[in-house]
Fold this sequence. Notes:
Elements: H1 2-20, E1 35-50, H2 56-75, H3 78-99, E2 101-111, E3 114-121, E4 131-136, E5 142-147, E6 150-153, H4 163-172
Antiparallel strand pairs: 1-2, 1-4, 2-3, 4-5, 5-6
Amino acid sequence: MILKSKIIGLTILVATTLSMAGCTVPTTEAGNTQTYYEGKITGIELIDMKTNRNDNTKNTLLGAVGGALLGNLIGKNSTGTVIGAGAGALAGNALSEYGQRHEGVRLSVDTDNGPVIVDMPFSCKYAIGKKVRLISGSSQGSVMVYNKGHYYTATEDSKDKCPTKYYKLKANGYDGE
């Protein structure tokens, strides 16, 4: 009977967690004010960065639930459940952290307000001498690159989209285009 109530409780916990995963966050709000600085890229280097795309809390919780279930099956007692939950929580958090690490770029930008350093995901649009607009005031900020009379938001690109630029940057530590 106790095992059955534990399974029902864990099932409710998992269902609640998964239903919360479907919630969305608006991308902007009315009255949101942003500022920007214009300048030119003077340096680019590859860096290791964290994207903060994953919700560590959800992944830790799901790892704990899975570990608790597995610990209960293996240990067949509350000690196994607690140890499994702890190990699962640690594993879920570690995997979430690892999944958020990837290469990005550090842009050195000379603006009217002085030099600025910006860490962003890798984009094929970045090049030394390119005119940019640095947008701040939002949760993450963004970089817009000037091209053919218009500013375009630099979105994350894989190294496969512009491999020559990526490997040149990786080898030289800068993009001298």
